[in-house]
Design goal:
By secondary structure, this protein is of the alpha+beta class. It is built from twelve helices and five strands. The two termini are about 50 Å apart. The C terminus is likely disordered.
């Protein structure tokens, strides 16, 4: 469970504000009485945190909600203790009495802390759910913006002419030279890769999908809609990752090969993209060779594209030369 430095600074800022505001109005009770600090109130407070987190993330399970509410309650106790220490120092209140006021008795501070604590502890709850932090989301957006100029054309589906199936499959050679790759200077690496795989007569669909489930290059034949198949890339990855992580916590599936009926489905990880290929079921290594070569095309293109994007400063990209 990791919280990004920027989220940590945000939590520290909000916590400081929640401590300072009650200190300014102390010892005014704003028409309230001192609380009795009953354990029943703590149970209702934890339930309140759980309800707020469920509203923010309806897909959360009960264990995640309990963990998030418990951590938030503990964080509120720590915040109240700091507030108690501060009023003990500034107002000369007995130390133990000040701690009791900050944690469970001084209602203006407690109400303020409880009301805003889910906002303060939201980064902690996102870390429990395993969701990306704000910094990771910003980096992912920057990567997509860097690749956007070259992926606009690749999003269009390329339907190749259907090639005749050889009468005798056994006569097909077992090797295929790399020189058979058709280099189209006007197409980006994603488009070249899916076109190259589509040259194999058994291929029905080839698509390149990014980390967000967006298709950046596709090929199809026989009326198959690539948009319907693209989300399966992330679905296969996440489902198999959960199984693998039971034994290998840091591993991810790199290649899946599924056979069903007369079809065969490949999912190949070419970080940070996934190559999804649907083909007819047949023997031979030609399609496997094309998968390896297409992965090399994507990997090389991504490396060159990102290196080029990182080498250009923001001033060079957006400010024209005089």
């Amino acid at each position: 469970m990791m919280v990004s430095p920027k989220d940590s600074r945000w939590m520290l800022l909000l916590s400081s504000i929640l401590i300072v505001i009650p200190m300014v109005i102390f010892p005014a009770k704003l028409g309230t009485e001192l609380s009795s600090g009953s354990f029943t109130y703590a149970i209702f407070e934890i339930l309140y945190y759980g309800v707020i987190f469920f509203i923010l993330r309806p897909s959360s399970n009960l264990i995640q909600l309990f963990q998030g509410a418990g951590l938030t309650f503990l964080f509120r106790i720590i915040l109240g203790s700091i507030f108690g220490v501060m009023i003990s120092i500034m107002y000369g209140v007995n130390f133990m009495a000040a701690l009791a006021l900050g944690v469970s008795k001084y209602l203006p501070a407690i109400i303020l802390h409880v009301a805003f604590m889910p906002i303060v502890a939201k980064p902690l709850y996102c870390a429990i759910l395993g969701e990306p932090s704000g910094d990771e989301l910003r980096r992912s957006k920057q990567r997509r913006m860097a690749a956007e100029p070259d992926t606009v054309q690749a999003s269009k589906t390329f339907v190749a002419a259907k090639r005749p199936v050889p009468a005798i499959i056994g006569e097909i050679k077992s090797e295929e030279p790399r020189t058979t790759v058709v280099a189209d200077k006007n197409a980006d690496g994603f488009d070249r890769a899916v076109r190259y795989i589509g040259e194999h007569h058994a291929v029905k669909l080839a698509a390149v999908v990014d980390e967000e489930g967006l298709m950046v290059g596709s090929f199809s034949r026989g009326g198959i809609n690539a948009e319907d198949w693209a989300p399966l890339a992330l679905l296969f990855k996440e489902a198999n990752k959960k199984i693998i992580n039971r034994y290998y916590k840091t591993s991810e599936p790199e290649r899946l090969d599924l056979t069903f009926g007369q079809n065969r489905l490949f999912s190949v990880r070419v970080s940070p993209f996934t190559l999804l290929v649907l083909s007819g079921r047949e023997d031979g290594d030609l399609l496997g060779i094309r998968l390896v070569q297409a992965s090399d095309i994507i990997s090389k293109y991504v490396s060159e594209r990102y290196d080029k994007s990182m080498s250009v400063s923001p001033e060079e990209k957006y400010v024209p030369s005089a």
